[in-house]
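Module 6 notes. Inverse folding takes a fixed backbone as the condition and produces residue identities as the prediction. Think of it as a translation problem where the source language is geometry and the target language is the twenty amino acids. Below is one complete input and output pair. Work through it position by position during the lab.
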């Protein structure tokens, strides 16, 4: 099981990862590519004996760490002094990352003395399969938190996402949650969900509240009836994660994000963008078509993680813009290449999106950061 990507998208993501490393290299970048068949202890990321002691409490794992969202999250973690372990699921990515590891462009300082260790950005790479519980547990060993960012795209499916992919998405999220709960070092789990898990319901029901927030859930039967497979996959994945979190007392936060936008994101991730925008006309008509910049979303992921020290987790609706006029729709159409019909909309939006819970958390985390 893995993320189905074209060779072109793989190359683009690895190149973006290389650029990210270069942008963070002023303080030194220690990149170590290992596989689980090379060692039974993937937490040994460098030859520096002071590494584990210095970073144990701040070692974080990111699944699909070379996806565009994964890369953005890794960069935010490095900026804040975390050590990062990224997971890849195929040998092609490993070989490309080994080329970066051996590149003279990247400052490799794995053997720097412990006195200067805080100035080194530590990154480890581990191969793991999302359908193998033991593989995930070995990959997570030593990490105190896990970000699960994976989105599954099937180029042969309708709009890049089929009903079959929805089942794969749910099973993968369930495996990741089970592995987090079963790995003693893991204390926190942050899942990248989607705003689509909140907005898809039968609007003919007069009892529906006009407010859509973190307490609102999409209707699974409605998603199936309308063939909204991307929404269904995200919905089942999030529900499975919450079920396991409750059963195993795992501290979980889910981030229900709008359509991800940003430099190079849409043009390099057309399948997920098209899949998200299925039903875009209805989203716009109901006032529920929202976007979020990939770099801002990455920052939010890290701050939600840090906020879990006090909040204990939870569900967060995340967006930075709601599309509310034809001009904004046309701009989005130009960026995505997806047509969204606005001719029947009378600009009287029935629903209102709210991310007040996230805003409160962000203000609290920012105050704590400023004080420290």
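Target side of the pair, the amino acids:
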């Amino acid at each position: 099981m893995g993320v189905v990507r074209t060779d072109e998208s793989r190359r683009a993501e690895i190149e973006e990862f290389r650029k990210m490393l270069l942008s963070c290299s002023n303080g030194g970048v220690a990149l170590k590519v290992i596989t689980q068949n090379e060692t039974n202890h993937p937490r040994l990321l460098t030859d520096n004996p002071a590494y584990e002691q210095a970073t144990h409490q701040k070692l974080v794992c990111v699944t699909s760490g070379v996806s565009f969202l994964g890369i953005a999250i890794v960069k935010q973690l490095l900026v804040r002094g975390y050590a990062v372990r990224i997971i890849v699921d195929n040998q092609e990515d490993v070989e490309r990352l080994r080329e970066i590891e051996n590149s003279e462009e990247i400052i490799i300082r794995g053997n720097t003395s412990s006195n200067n260790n805080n100035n080194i950005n530590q990154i480890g790479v581990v191969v793991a399969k999302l359908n193998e519980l033991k593989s995930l547990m070995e990959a997570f060993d030593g990490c105190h938190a896990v970000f699960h960012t994976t989105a599954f795209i099937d180029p042969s499916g309708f709009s890049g996402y089929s009903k079959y992919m929805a089942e794969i998405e749910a099973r993968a999220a369930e495996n990741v949650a089970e592995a987090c709960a079963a790995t003693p070092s893991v204390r926190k789990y942050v899942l990248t969900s989607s705003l689509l898990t909140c907005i898809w319901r039968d609007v003919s029901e007069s009892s529906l509240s006009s407010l859509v927030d973190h307490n609102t859930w999409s209707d699974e039967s409605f998603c199936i009836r309308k063939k909204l497979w991307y929404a269904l996959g995200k919905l089942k994945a999030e529900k499975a994660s919450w079920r396991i979190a409750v059963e195993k007392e795992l501290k979980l936060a889910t981030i229900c994000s709008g359509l991800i936008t940003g430099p190079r994101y849409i043009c390099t991730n057309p399948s997920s963008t098209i899949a998200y925008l299925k039903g875009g006309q209805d989203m716009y008509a109901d006032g529920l078509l929202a976007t979020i910049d990939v770099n801002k979303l990455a920052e939010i992921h890290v701050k939600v993680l840090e906020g879990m020290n006090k909040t204990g987790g939870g569900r967060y609706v995340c967006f930075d813009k709601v599309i509310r006029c034809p001009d904004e729709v046309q701009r989005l159409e130009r960026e995505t290449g997806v047509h969204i019909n606005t001719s029947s909309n009378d600009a009287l939006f029935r629903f209102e999106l709210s991310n007040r819970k996230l805003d409160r958390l962000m203000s609290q985390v920012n105050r704590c950061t400023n004080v420290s």
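Reference fact for the lab report: The first helix runs from residue 7 to 23.
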